[in-house]
Amino acid sequence: MLKGMRSVVGLLLLSLLVLSCKKEDEGFAPFEAGQLGALTTEEKPLPPSSDALTVLSATPIGELQSYLQAQTIAVVFNESMVEVSDETQNEVPSGPFKIEPALKGTYRWLGARTIIFTPSDSLPLATTFKVSVPKGIKALSGKALAEDYTFEFTTLRVGIEQIAPVFQVAPQGEIIVRFNQPVTMEIAKKLCCETKKEQR
């Protein structure tokens, strides 16, 4: 009798476990194609919006901390600006925003809503750039940007990375100062050293 009850309880527990696993599996949707793959230009369509055309984001902005941050300038719109095709994804000499001071480079659409600018040369250091997207620019839907959109960024400023030696210097010894970028002699001349006697 006791043995039979144990068998029934075991079957009930096994059934509950199977049903629980099945329910958990149903709660997870299958992965979409490309969800775990590398970054691509594929974009999911945004829901229709009654608002005007706007800029969702722009980079870089503010004080840059490395050279890598100034390799490209990007602007993302809230609506499709171009039809995605081989022609629109190619590099072209002109684009929908203006950069001051002017830079040589190419524009390219990354998908339908993101435009990127790639400078031909490294950007000058310690320089502030202003990027302007003019009002009136239109999306494929016909909606226009109501106001100018502007943002600024400043490339890497002059800074000191290393000074050697750190603690003690011989009377005729050298002090080596390493900057984060090439500097002129005028900047180097502004360096000064102070002596301080140790207190014993």
Question: Could you characterize what this model shows?
Answer:
With 200 residues, the chain is α+β, with helices and mostly antiparallel strands. The chain has helices spanning 2-26, 185-189; strands spanning 55-59, 62-63, 73-77, 98-100, 105-110, 114-119, 128-133, 149-154, 160-164, 176-179. Among the domains are: 55-154, Sandwich (Immunoglobulin-like), CATH 2.60.40; 160-189, no CATH class. The strands form three sheets. A four-stranded antiparallel sheet has the order 1-3-6-5, with no helix packed on it. A four-stranded mixed sheet has the order 2-8-7-4, with no helix packed on it. The chain is elongated, with a radius of gyration of 30 Å.
Strand order of the largest sheet: 1-3-6-5
Give the CATH architecture of the domain at 55-154.
Sandwich
Total of DSSP H or I helical runs spanning 4+ residues: 2
Provide the residue-averaged pLDDT.
78
CATH topology of the domain at 55-154: Immunoglobulin-like
Give the % helix: 10-25%
Number of strands: 10
Question: Percent of residues in beta strands?
Answer: 15-25%
